[in-house]
Each structure stands twice: as structure tokens, then as C-alpha cells.
Amino acid sequence: MTVKKSQQTSLVHTDYQAPAGFAAFPSAIHHASTVLFKNVAAMRSGDWKEKNAYTYGLHGTPTTFTLEARLAEIEDGRHCLLAPSGLAAIAMVDFALLKSGDDVLLPDNVYNPNRELGKWLSADFGVTARYYDPLIGAGIAALIQPNTKLIWTEAPGSVSMEVPDLPAICQAAHARGVLVALDNTWSAGLALRGFALGVDIIMQALTKYQSGGSDVLMGALITRDGALHERLSMAHMRLGMGVGADDAYLVLRGLPTLKMRFEAHDASARTVAAWLKTRPEISKVLHPAFQDCPGHEIWQRDFSGAGGLFSVLFDPSYAEARTDRFVDALQLFKIGYSWGGANSLVMPYRIAHMRQAWRDAGILVRFNVGLEDTVDLIADIEQALAAM
């Protein structure tokens, strides 16, 4: 029997159904907190962990499921979980895999918020966080303790650019039953095949190249092992790690041009970095594709590209006040964190304060080379060096 509806009820409940058969290139945006079930049996049979049904907006909609599937495909993985940021994804790994009394190893060049998270784990949660030389390779075996449960890697370090020997680290870790997580943001999942090298978990900050618009915060965890994915999924659920459908759509929209944009950033960054190597003000260019960057031979073996992010060290004769003046004088390079967008960025770092063992002299400045003309970018750096 059809229920007669008042005007107000008709505003809330409509009988209209759009005709089937619509098709278009963009993924549809599905907004939902509440998800509707056909009947009680459907409500009771759905398993949010298996993603074989829709149960609640936090656990996924067709929009987020589509993005997760495509990101897993890019990384040659099987499972993917989205998080509100790259740091949220890192925290999800730690809270899924570590408990009081456990130990985690992090590279000394780790993304600084990951370092701060390690300090918090040590101070308040009874998890010891220790830091290792990012170029340690197989030597990490000597640091693995009976309570070590996780090793974080970053390839390369996103400020000082050392490239770790991932296969050697993974082999040493797996021999002792320790999991390895990789921050693969620098390569956008395109230029480094982490699972082929032995890592267990790949973290991506989709805020960077996948978005490409400097307007989205999002992270992802990608795995191959089903049991490991379930452990991460439980942390995802318990921590309430949801992402909005509009943001997921923006990342989906960026994926078709991801490889072309990444390669354009790579070519431009190498051009700018090569020019900087000729400048007397610069003592070292820290770009993994250049021979004098620590771990270059590992980059040459394991990577197929480089993207737009690299750093330089100024000659030690230039004090911080002068390099700050250089950064302030730049016009096309804007001062800001992150990378992977169309706009070029610059950021000075007090690297000696960030690292336990840093021996190089000179102020470190990091460049993100965007999609502007390299002739204009080089001219901008040149005028800023003159102003310094």
C-alpha cells in the first residue's frame, strides 16, 4: 500500500529514482554518514572489514572504495585504507602494531612529525622509539631487539635526501620477524616499487602528487597481506579515520595526470638542481639522481625517477641571516611546507637541530620545483642569490 505523504514529508522522502544507464568519466561523489540497508538480513550480513557491503560512511562509500582500489593498483598492492592525512596514516600503523613494551626503529632522517610521534610513544605509551643511520643497510640487524616490532623507512629522506637500502633492511627485519613500513611519498608510488623490494606496508601522503592541487590533506596505507590489512583496519575503525567524499574525488580526479605531472616535476627539478651545482654559493646539491648524494647508487638501482623535491647546502661561509635573506628574496618560489603541487616552494631547515647525527656544515634549504618554466625559476633563484 502506498503511504500518503504530506508536503513536508514529500520534501524528505521522494519516490523519484533517476533512470539507470548513466555513464561518464569522473567517479561519482557519494556523500554518506548513514548508509541504508535493503532489509535486516542485509544489515546483519555486511562485513565492513571485508568491504563487501556498505555499512556506515566512515567505513567507505563507492567513492572511497574506488580511490582505495586505484591506489592499491598503482603500488601493486591488494588492500588500501584512507586516512585524513599522511601523519594520520603513520599513526594508524603505530597504534595497530605497537603496544606498551614494544620497540620501533625510525631512520634519523625521518619526516619530522613521525619523529615527534615516536617521542610521544616513548613518553606516554611505553613504546621505545630508537633512531638509526638511514644508510645503515644490513647493519640494522645489530639494532633489532627481541621486542622490536616495526621498522620505519623513508626513501629518500624528505629533507636531507639519503636513500636507504630497502632490500637489505627488509631482509634483516624479516629474518627476525619484524615488519617494515615505507614512506613512499617522495616517489608518488610511481618511481619506487616498495613491495618488490620487500616492504610490508606502504604509506603515501596523498596530499602531495596524487592531489597535485595543494588543496587536499589525505593519507593512505597499502598492503598485500590480508591479516596485516585486518590489523590496520581495526585501528582505522577504532581511531575513526574517515575521509570526505569531496576530497576523495579530488584525488581521483588527479590520478589520470599523475605520471605526466611527476615526470614534468622530475625533469624540471634536475634542470634547476644542475644549475645550482654550478653556483659558488652552494656547497652541495642533495638530489638522489646526482652522484654525490648519499645513497645515489641505491637510487640508481631501485628507482625509475625522482620527482621535484631536493635540497641544497649553502657554503658554510653564509650565515643563517644571509640564507634567510635569500629565501625571502625569492618571488616564484613561495615559502611553505609540502610538495607535489604546480607551484614551486622553498623551505629553510635548521637540520642540525632535527638530527641526532648531522655532520655537514652549511645551511640546508629545500626546493620543491613545480610546473613553472625552468628558465623563470632559475632567474628567480639567481636574483635572490644576488640579493643575499
UniProtKB/TrEMBL annotation:
Enzyme class, UniProt record, top EC level: lyase
EC number of this enzyme: 4.4.1.8
Catalyzed reactions: L,L-cystathionine + H2O = L-homocysteine + pyruvate + NH4(+)
Residues with PTM N6-(pyridoxal phosphate)lysine: K208
GO molecular function, one term: pyridoxal phosphate binding
Matching SUPFAM superfamilies: PLP-dependent transferases
Highest taxon above the source species: Bacteria
GO BP, sorted A to Z: L-cysteine catabolic process to pyruvate; transsulfuration
Protein keywords: Lyase, Pyridoxal phosphate
Cofactors that this protein relies on: pyridoxal 5'-phosphate
Family: Belongs to the trans-sulfuration enzymes family.
UniProt-recorded name of the protein: Cystathionine beta-lyase
Organism: Rugamonas apoptosis
